Amino acid sequence: MSGFKDVMQSADWKSEKHVPAIGAADSVKAGEFFNVEVNVGKEVAHPNTTEHHIRWITLYFQPDGAKAPYQVGRYEFDAHGESTDGANKGPVYTNSCVVTSMKTDKPGTLLAASYCNIHGLWESSKEVEVS
Description:
mainly beta; Immunoglobulin-like; five-stranded mixed beta sheet; 1 helix; 8 strands
């Protein structure tokens, strides 16, 4: 039987278009909000077509020493050019990028997962220090 560890893929986001790139400060102030950007296709563009697209990104925060991560948010991307006129003929396309704001009193790791409708699940992480 396989689990997430067997299907979750990872790579360097600078060379692999499916990996969620996490942008956040390396160190933040305790109790103060800071922005986190998660972008799939930041360096190498990911297609956003009816046939091939990023469906969602989920962001978690794992405080140092905690047993489980906390879900910060789940972001759906629903417009990929679909239309009653056919594939890729619709007027709306989404870009798989999200910016959210969060705060924490503890250092830890931001964890992002994304889902490509063709190439499956991808993950990345970024450590955050707190002062």
